[in-house]
Design a protein that fits this description.
Blueprint (H helix, E strand, L loop, with lengths): L21 H11 L4 E6 L2 E9 L13 E5 L2 E7 L1 H22 L5 H14 L11 E9 L2 E7 L5 E3 L2 E4 L3 H9 L8 H15 L8 E9 L7 E2 L2 H20 L1
Helix pairs in contact: 2-3, 4-5, 5-6
Length: 249
């Protein structure tokens, strides 16, 4: 009975006999069914990229964004339920503002990741709450340089050089591992992230998608910003060309 969750998945506070909390696993499944989100740490900053699946041809481009700014120096990319992601972003903004008002300086990226993770974990402790059905990749730039974190629906956070979540995460991780991130600038990283997202998108199974890219680097004055339109188009063109070349082979 415990292997399929029957009777043990009715509450987030119930453990199965083999120590599993099924509602957290179901929340992780919501993340795995989402469009792919990629983040990489380059030598001069962070690049975030999202494969935002378009649910309707009538949807206006740029709506329902999955990349959000938290503070001047940090931003998050969301995979999973977008509405849940907005709640986490709102909490992250509140924590960043509170820290800045209290200590008179921007919140360190590690502290922000820990506070978000604690908030997410809180929703796995009480029976009247449900876990967040989303995972986030947090990127930021502070006195210790650029940093990249993942916060999972279980409330754990990890620091990475390069990371991916969503349905194409395994293929994306394989491609990220091939990159020499310590030698790569964010301008180069933008093109590589676009190539990865285009390569993991399954045109036969998935809907059309919109590519979202942002960066935090020296070129953006160490502030989280959307990638400029000309760079975005350049990255799209390079990714499409690489995809056509791969299909031709």
């Amino acid at each position: 009975m415990s292997s399929i969750g029957t009777g043990y998945d009715l509450s987030v506070t119930t453990f199965s006999p083999d120590g599993r909390v099924f509602q957290i696993e179901y929340a992780a499944k919501a993340v795995d069914n989402s469009g792919t989100v990629v983040g990489i740490k380059c030598k001069d900053g962070i690049v975030l990229g999202v494969e935002k699946l378009i649910t309707s041809k009538m949807m206006l481009e740029g709506s329902n964004r999955r990349i959000h700014s938290v503070h001047h120096h940090s931003g998050v990319a969301v995979a999973g339920l977008a509405a849940d992601g907005r709640q986490i972003v709102a909490r992250a903004k509140s924590e960043a503002t509170s820290y800045s008002n209290t200590y008179g300086e921007p919140i360190p990226v590690k502290e922000l990741a820990d506070r978000i993770a604690s908030y997410v974990h809180l929703c796995t402790l009480y029976w009247w709450l449900r876990p967040f059905g989303c995972g986030i990749i947090l990127g930021g730039y502070d006195r210790d340089g650029p940093q990249l974190y993942i916060v999972e629906p279980s409330g754990v956070s990890y620091r990475y050089y390069g990371a991916a979540i969503g349905k194409g995460r395994q293929a994306a991780k394989t491609e990220i591992e091939k990159l020499k991130l310590s030698e790569m600038t964010c301008r180069e990283g933008i093109i590589e992230v676009a190539k990865i997202i285009y390569s993991v998108h399954d045109e036969a199974k998935d809907k059309a998608f919109e590519l979202e890219l942002s960066w935090i680097c020296d070129e953006s004055n160490r502030e989280h910003q959307k990638v400029p339109a000309d760079l975005l188009e350049q990255a799209k063109s390079a990714a499409e060309a690489a995809q056509e070349e791969m299909d031709a082979d």
